Amino acid sequence: MKFSAPLSLALAALTSQAAAHYTLPSLIINGQVTPQWANVRRTNNYNSQAPVTDVRSADFRCYTSETRATASTITVSAGSQIGVVANGNMYHAGVINVYMARATNGNAATFNGDGNVWFKVHQIPAVTNGGSSISWPGSNIDRFTFTLPRSLPTGEYLIRTEQIALHSASGFAGAQFYIACGQLNVINGGSGNLGPLVSIPGVYTGNEPGILINIYWPIPANYTQPGPPVWRG
Ligand SMILES: *[C@@H]1O[C@H](CO)[C@@H](O)[C@H](O)[C@H]1NC(C)=O
Ligand SMILES: [Cu+2]
Predict the structure, then answer these.
(1) CB neighbour class for 79 (10 Å; exposed up to 12, middle 13-18, buried from 19)
(2) Under 8 Å CB-to-CB from 47, ≥6 apart: which residues?
(3) What predicted TM-score, i.e. pTM, was given to this entire model?
(4) Which domains, and CATH codes, for the chain?
(5) Which residues form the signal peptide (predicted)?
(6) Which atom of ligand 1 is nearest to the CA of 222?
């Protein structure tokens, strides 16, 4: 019965799709969870909670084409721990990336994130074991934290989180992206050289081995996190 394990996993994934999905409406700043959609731009799916699946669409950036939302910008020191909070358990098997873009106009509230301006500040990849198991530290959590580099330059930024749900990612555009953009005013910064810089959309084609992937069978022997390496300052 060598197919029973992956089959039951696949069935579990199908059943859980009937449940509500999730959004990413809050940050953790100075240890406090921010009110929903206060410092994060309200996304189109704030009701439906539906994901983005087209990595080339304009909504792949901040998912605000319908809400046209801006948020209020929250101040945080470089070098401090921050976090992202979902409105529920991020139960889909998947991975997480957090990107930031320095507001080239100096104002995160009016910055639209155009151009080659995005760098990765955090990621939570899959954990593989040569094909015997795969696990998802970025899944079945409702929040995560990480530390902003001390050398992050002072200035205003967009901070964009994506949880990439991979339960039905074996066909093109099957991966589901749960996305939201917050607005940060970084103080006490340093003189780091941000990069590598990418554009969003543009950073992915949808054919990446970590996006177009059957996570069930055969169990992937390795996992390649989508996007550029994390900027460590
Ligand atoms: C695993 O590594 C191989 C060799 O580098 C690569 O071709 C493949 O795309 C990787 N698989 C995943 C799922 O990242
Ligand atoms: Cu879902």
Answers:
(1) middle
(2) none
(3) 0.92
(4) 22-187 (2.70.50.70)
(5) 1-20
(6) 1
How many angstroms does the Cα of residue 177 sit away from the middle of ligand 2? Answer: 9
Per-residue pLDDT of the chain (233 residues; tens, 9 = 90+): 334 444 444 444 444 444 689 999 999 999 999 999 999 999 999 999 999 999 999 999 999 999 999 999 999 999 999 999 999 999 999 999 999 999 999 999 999 999 999 999 999 999 999 999 999 999 999 999 999 999 999 999 999 999 999 999 999 999 999 999 999 999 999 999 999 999 999 999 999 999 999 999 999 999 999 999 999 99
User: How buried is residue 22: exposed, middle or buried, by Cβ count under 10 Å (0-12/13-18/19+)?
Assistant: buried
Task: Output the ligand 1 site: residues, CB below 6 A.
Answer: 209-210, 213, 220, 222-224
Q: Quick one: which ligand is closest to 22's CA?
A: 2
Tokens of 222: 């390795």
Contact, 84 vs 142, CB < 8 A? no
Kindly identify the ligand whose nearest atom is closest to the C-alpha of 13: 2
**Ligand 2: distance of its center to the CA of 31 in Å?**
28
Residue from 123, 217, 222 to probe ligand 1 pocket by mutation (most atoms less than 8 Å from CB): 222
Distance 216 CA to ligand 1 centre (A): 15
